[in-house]
Each structure stands twice: as structure tokens, then as C-alpha cells.
Amino acid sequence: HVQLVESGGGSVQAGGSLRLSCVVSKFTVRNYCMAWFRRAPGKDREEVAALDSDSSTRYAESTKGRFSISVDAGRNTLYLQMNNLKLEDTAMYSCAVRSGHCWMQRDFNYWGQGTQVTVS
User: Is the pLDDT of residue 75 over 90?
Assistant: First the structure.
């Protein structure tokens, strides 16, 4: 079955950088959407960035220009490079994948366990 395992979270000072990784196993579809989500304490989960199989990307307004989503197909790994981190970026970050292009209105059905990012 499909498995997603995140890593790379941790504690960082404001203005610093982190790179999150998500190894995706047994997910072999032609058209897909991969994304990073985060949930901060007391807040709803929000999509941070998404990557389509056609290489298009989208970002939350709060992360544009600071975060970058990418994929290494050879390593089956999704990345989220986070620069110029702010206090409000503190959250549990999770990766998710699903079949179909990102513009399709579908729920993500495969999720990782999450990795904590704390900015101080």
C-alpha cells in the first residue's frame, strides 16, 4: 500500500531555513497531485504548497516567495524548502498525495504522519 514518510522538521530561529522531505512508496499513477499541509495549534489545516504531475505548482499566499515545493522522481521524494521562516510558520507539516491533477476537486487520500516545525 502507499506510504509517505516525512523528515526534516525541527527547531529553527526566525529567518532561518529548513527542508522537509517526504518519501513516497508504492504510488504509481500517471497524473497526480502532491502537496504539503500544515496545522498550527488552534487553527485549521491549510495547504502550503502543491505540485502537479504536469510540473505546475501553487502556494498559499503566506508562503509565496519563501517556500518551494519540488520532487525527485528518481528518489520518490517530495521536498519543501522553507526559507525566511517566521514565527507563524510553526506547525505540524504533513505531505499528501492523490491521483488526478491538482485542479481537480478531490480529497487527498494518502497522508504522512507529520513532522513538527518550530520557529522561535
Answer: no
